[in-house]
DNA sequence: GGATTGACCGAAATTGTTTTACGGTCATTG
DNA sequence: CAATGACCGTAAAACAATTTCGGTCAATCC
């Protein structure tokens, strides 16, 4: 049995169930059935252990997004599916869901930083697809980073914030239509 | 001297300097040079006094936005100028600036509610202009409320959030160009 | 003798208690 | 009878006492 893997497994479960702050190194050691000192032979501190785990979750999210799209489809379809998939992942995945909750309620610094990395990954993913669409002439020339950022923020606004403040969520079709008739339309070459 | 006016003046100064929570009714009474009980003959409680003041600030913001635009200009110009003006007002105005700070740090409920009204005012303002543009055939048919919401959220993202996370602010020209070439372009009839 | 451990340390958070401050009232006052 | 400020109950701040936790390292084990 691989001690390092056991530690990561235990920490993942604990972070997912209790969040970053409420997870103690003693707890992780106990679940992983190792001495607390052993953890520190693999990870220099709690935050590094945490970062490693979140970053592997981010890679998982990227894989799922990649798997959700078909390279042949137009950019607007790819962007919509990828954004919806990643936003859903962010909310549904046990670890990230717990972290979002913790950020809202406790504002743990380490958590804020990692959720920012999640955001960067999503924006970066969309920016890369957008750049490809520009290169192949499907989309007009524009700053992919800025437009990807706008897409991300707008999707978050409609998928997450709108239901929170206005009560009723918007259907996925409504959101897709809205973007098709405004932003994506303006992007067409 | 008008007691009611004096009270509003005193409360405005106090809310602007110390925020909602840190303003006490004793403090307001002292500044206004009235007994505390007198305040309660005009306002039923602290929150109502606060609401009255914020709502008058909102009207002030609307006036400034209205004054900043020319009815003859195309929607994209009006929307840009109005959004920039209102976002600037929101950040620069002593009262609203203090409230934004208080919301971030203390999350006072009464403050959250009033800042939500500020947001609603901005979105409503843009939605109204958008509806007019649609009626006069300048802009394609769309849901004005949803598109105005997207505009607001995107502008906040670029004007306020981008500089906070990425360090460097974007020039107003960069922002205007970005929207002209994407969202506004997609809206054209 | 290198890997593993958990008792141990100081800092930081939590808990429990006392004191203070505050929003709102209302009997008194001018 | 409009205006006031002492007064009330609650809620928050302040303080003290206690516990918890991240990280270390001498002792232990294999």
Automatic annotation (TrEMBL), chains A, B:
For this protein, the record's InterPro entries field holds: DNA-bd_HTH_TetR-type_CS (IPR023772), Homeodomain-like_sf (IPR009057), HTH-type_Tx_Regulator (IPR050624), HTH_TetR (IPR001647), Tet_transcr_reg_TetR-rel_C_sf (IPR036271)
Q: Which residues cross the membrane?
A: none
Q: What is this protein called?
A: AcrR family transcriptional regulator
* The keyword DNA-binding belongs to this UniProt entry's keyword annotation: yes
- Ranges annotated as DNA-binding: 24-43
Domain HTH tetR-type residue range list:
1-61
- Could you list this entry's UniProt keywords, alphabetically sorted: DNA-binding
Xref: SUPFAM superfamilies: Homeodomain-like, Tetracyclin repressor-like, C-terminal domain
Pfam annotation, one family = TetR_N
């Amino acid at each position: 049995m691989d001690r390092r893997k056991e530690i990561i497994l235990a920490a993942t479960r604990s972070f997912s169930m209790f969040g970053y702050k409420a997870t103690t190194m003693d707890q992780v050691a106990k679940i992983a059935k190792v001495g607390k000192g052993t953890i520190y032979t693999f990870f220099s501190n709690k935050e590094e252990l945490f970062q490693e785990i979140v970053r592997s979750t981010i890679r998982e999210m990227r894989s799922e997004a990649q798997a959700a799209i078909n390279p042949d489809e137009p950019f607007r379809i790819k962007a919509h599916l990828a954004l919806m998939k990643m936003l859903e992942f962010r909310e549904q995945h046990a670890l990230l869901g717990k972290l979002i909750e913790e950020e809202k309620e406790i504002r743990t610094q380490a958590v804020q930083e990692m959720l920012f990395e999640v955001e960067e990954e999503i924006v970066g993913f969309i920016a890369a697809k957008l750049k490809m669409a520009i290169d192949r002439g499907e989309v007009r020339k524009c700053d992919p980073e800025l437009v990807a950022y706008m897409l991300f923020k707008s999707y978050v606004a409609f998928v997450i914030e709108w239901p929170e403040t206005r009560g009723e969520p918007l259907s996925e079709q409504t959101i897709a239509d809205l973007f098709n008739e405004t932003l994506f339309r303006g992007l067409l070459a």
